[in-house]
Amino acid sequence: MIYLQLFFEFLKIGMFSVGGGMATLPFLYDLSDKTGWFTHAQIADMLAVSESTPGPMGINMATYVGYTVAGIPGSILASVGLILPGVILVLLIMAVLEKFRNNKYVEGAFYGLRPASVGLIAAAGILVARIAFLSSDSPVTVSEFLNGISIKAVILAVILLILTRGVKATKNLHPVVFIGFSALVGIVFSFAGV
């Protein structure tokens, strides 16, 4: 039963997460709340692992969840469930795209999907930032919010932003260098449980 549930949950995510791997994050938060298979904090870990391993991020996260819930068969079923809607959609689009290429409704639909993708990715970014920078899930007052901010995480984020965007010597380094640097900083400065 868990295998079918994994497959269908990720099939649903695959059908509606337009915009790539980051767009799957709001759906994963919902899945976490609904099933209890993983916590919101584990989603941040999934994101870190998915970003630092080869392959599409959404599929990496589906594989991660599937494996933690039901081992190797679960990882395969979750991954297949996530990619199946996209594969079917691409095959259908290929079959009819030439016929409807200049159709104003098709163009309008694709144009309308852009803001939806941006919204989903922005929502995911805000949720990940909350996990990365705040020590509590839902601060109620301004003082709780300010007291909950992880200064170490903010400093690391600012340093990485400067190194990746502002310093010419490090600007073109491969992202793996920054991921490794961040992992090392997290170990050295005890980021666990921040």
Overview of the molecule:
The longest helix is centred in the middle third of the chain and has 44 residues. The model has no long low-confidence stretch (mean pLDDT 84). This protein has 194 residues and is mainly alpha-helical. It contains nine helices and no strands. 79% of the residues lie in helices and 0% in strands. The radius of gyration is 19 Å and the shape is globular. The two termini are 37 Å apart.
Topology, number of strands: 0
Percent of sequence in beta strands = under 5%
The N- to C-terminal Cα distance equals 37 Å
Largest sheet: none
Structural class given helices, strands, pairing? mainly alpha
- Helicity range: over 70%
Average per-residue pLDDT, rounded, comes to 84
Oligomer category = single chain
Number of helices: 9
Query: What is the alpha-carbon Rg in Å?
Result: 19 Å
Question: Which regions have little confidence, pLDDT < 50, spanning 5+ residues?
Answer: none
Shape: globular
Q: Sketch the topology as an H/E string, one letter per element.
A: HHHHHHHHH
